[in-house]
Amino acid sequence: MKLINKLETMIMGWLKPLPHIPAKWTKMIAENLWWITGISIVLSVIAIFMSISAIYTAAVFLGRASSFLDYYSNSFYDSWWVAAAVVSMVMLIVNVVLMGKAFNPLKAMQKKGWDLLFIMFLIMVVARVIGLVLSFSVDNLLVGLVMALVGIAVGVYVLFEIRSNFKDGKIAAVGKK
User: Vertex 161, ends 46 and 96: CA angle to 5°?
Assistant: First the structure.
């Protein structure tokens, strides 16, 4: 956890000179983050089942149509596609578990919930890097790298803008006074 706290402090230093989102907007985002996380959990679970289905479908297709695929592509690339899909699915499962653990602390506006989202964000960054490495295409790498950097920059900016709304310790849920 010390490493994550050091990383958090370093990122806060980078973002300090940037303009800030108005306080009422950050408060609104922070107060509603728990139900946005809940919706994300449901959609991510659906995506996990769809990924499992896609991997099995691809495995069946690759097994039955191997001569057709060998004509148009090589099996080395196809096996890396399956490996990339499995790695992505594992990362998604880890993120769903972290979102599930963050749900109640986010609802109570606890820093623990924000910390779990930050860890989830770091895992997402690692997943993007692995996905880019496994893509094996210069076009995908360049476009993917630009899109990944933009997504990471926006995500980390918003995440750190709402950080001050989450406090350590037990705090009553929003709306209960």
Answer: 20
| CA 65 to each of CA 14, 58, 68, 137: distance values in angstroms, whole numbers, following the listed order | 51, 10, 5, 23
Which residues face 110 on adjacent strands? 167
**Element holding 163 (H helix, E strand):** none
pLDDT tens profile 128-172? 888 777 766 666 677 878 888 899 999 999 999 999 999 886 544
Q: pLDDT tens digits, residue range 27-58? A: 999 999 999 999 999 999 999 999 888 877 87
Question: What is Dmax (Cα atoms) for the chain?
Answer: 68
Question: Hey, what long-range contacts does 13-21 have (CB within 8 A, 24 or more apart)?
Answer: 15/156, 15/157, 15/160, 18/157, 20/161, 21/158, 21/161
Q: Determine contact, residues 113/105, Cβ cutoff 8 Å.
A: yes
Provide the CB-side half-sphere exposure for 120 (13 A, CA).
23
Question: What distances in angstroms separate CA 6 from CA 3, 13, 18, 89, one per listed residue?
Answer: 5, 11, 20, 29
pTM value > 0.85: no
What single letter denotes the amino acid at residue 30? A
